[in-house]
Design brief:
The protein is 32% helix and 24% strand. It is α/β, with parallel strands linked by helices.
Length: 466
């Protein structure tokens, strides 16, 4: 379609249009921005709403009563089917997936997998949401268990806000549980990848959810804070600054960098290399559950060389190529990441990527190739550096180093037979998830908690006696 850009005088041809979805359906905002793909070509014409639209939208969400539980459960199942199979917003599933790949730089295979993940998560949203329900609590006050006195699991409040990230489409699989629990939901898409939440909200509306059940609020960063201020509870994705900003808030659950890690004792890594490569480079290598550091109790140099050999064999392809495995960004952005990486790696030994990680595709975009750096100390600060491509810091570790280097970790995969140390890892408050043996850090399925269950944040128990 042809339109005039409001930011600048040049007219642009947009491949897709994304508008707000509010109380009265689609709203075409005057303030529009162009979202380019990784080659710098126009991909999406995105309308950004003002504060007044947010206030009115949240007011409508607050006034609505949730659909009956059976109705919203059926609608979620149907929405998952529609999302994965139907044409929405003028895009077929294949066209949507290829456009997301070009815009985000995520390999096409992972966009396709994320489509399936979102569809499955929608179908199972009611069951997975209730994984967080305490065993002693009933789902409804009419449950037979409430005779004589028991507890009922209820919402903490009514309106839930989502300030989403754009690093992976599958981030939108989680907030579906809020809908399943009866929350009305406002989603603010990332400007880096607004296509997935737009498609998902369209699917939810087509499946039976009303405008006043779930809305899409594309905004700039300033108005995004208005969403958080207006709703009852919110989940916000971002970097360390976002986590620090909301650290003491009971209203906001902040999702920041994962800094996921692997611990390998003795020489067990020789039989675990497939798992380790998947942890580092799987799922497009842009997730908070991708491993950032590997701690080796044994020959760390031999491990680093073997790992580098495996990662170096990954092909450099455009993101929408069927065989692409590595993330792609604009050449300018890729050069910036490369410069940051090489500066951060000062004082370490480059095993792979020391001469740079940018593979110029010649069309304005570049593949972010893997990097492996060897640090000399388990407590080296580089091991906490997380980047949106396969970049891993290999560190020596021994039992005398203890748990300290492994702290502040979303997922830790531990290859060890030391049961006492596994107990220590499970008891460490700053390690969110512990996987053992051949389980990659990227393992995540519906019903498995990510950063605890979302229901733990959204719900509470009330005593009921009758």
């Amino acid at each position: 379609m042809h339109m005039r850009a409001t930011q600048g005088e040049a007219s642009v041809d947009a491949a897709a249009r994304v508008d707000a979805l509010g109380p009265r359906g689609e709203y075409q905002a005057r303030h529009r921005v162009v979202v380019n793909d990784v080659r710098g070509e126009t991909a999406v014409d995105l309308g950004l709403i003002p504060r007044l639209f947010v206030w009115r939208g949240v007011s409508a969400l607050r006034k609505a009563t949730p659909l009956p539980v059976e109705e919203r459960t059926r609608a979620l199942v149907e929405a998952g089917r529609i999302f994965a199979n139907d044409t929405l917003g003028g895009l077929s599933p294949d066209a949507y997936q290829r456009l997301v790949s070009r815009v985000s730089g995520m390999p096409l295979y992972m966009v396709r997998r994320s489509t399936a993940i979102i569809a499955e998560s929608a179908a199972k949203a009611y069951q997975t949401a209730h994984c967080a329900r305490p065993q002693a609590a009933a789902a409804s006050w009419t449950d037979a268990r409430t005779f004589g006195g028991s507890a009922v699991w209820t919402r903490r409040n009514d309106v839930f806000g989502v300030l989403a990230s754009g690093n992976t489409p599958s981030v939108h699989s989680l907030w579906l549980e809020a809908l399943a629990l009866g929350y009305r939901v406002a989603v603010r898409p990332s400007q880096h990848e607004p296509l997935t939440p737009y498609r998902l909200v369209l699917a939810l509306h087509a499946a039976g959810f009303r405008n006043e059940d779930v809305m899409l609020f594309p905004t700039d960063h300033a108005v995004a804070d208005t969403i958080v201020d207006s709703v009852d509870l919110a989940i916000v994705y971002g970097g360390d600054a976002v986590v620090e900003k909301h650290r003491d808030s009971r209203k906001v659950q902040a999702q920041g960098p994962g800094r996921s890690k692997i611990l390998v004792t003795r020489d067990d890594w020789r039989d675990r290399m497939d798992m380790i490569v998947e942890s580092i480079a799987g799922k497009g290598a842009t997730n908070c559950i991708n491993a950032t550091a590997v701690f080796v109790d044994g020959d760390a140099d031999a491990f680093a060389e073997a790992l580098a050999e495996r990662l170096a064999a990954m092909p450099s392809l455009p993101p929408d190529h069927d065989d692409a495995l590595l993330p792609v960004q604009s050449l300018e952005h890729a050069r910036g990441l490369e410069s940051f990486l090489l500066g951060r790696a000062a004082g370490t030994r480059a095993v792979l990527g020391g001469d740079g990680i940018v593979h110029d595709l010649g069309d304005g975009s570049a593949v972010l190739r893997p990097a492996v750096f060897r640090v000399d100390d388990a407590n080296a600060p580089q091991t906490g550096t997380e980047l949106p491509f396969p970049c891993v810091w290999v560190a020596p570790w021994s039992k005398s180093d203890g748990v300290a280097p492994l702290r502040d970790t979303l997922v830790l995969t531990a290859v060890t037979d030391d049961r006492d140390f596994v107990e220590t890892l499970l008891e460490e408050p700053t390690i969110t998830n512990v996987y053992l043996g051949d389980t990659p850090t990227t393992f995540l399925e519906p019903g498995i908690p990510h950063d605890s269950y979302l229901g733990e944040f959204l719900m509470r128990t009330k005593a009921v006696a009758r």
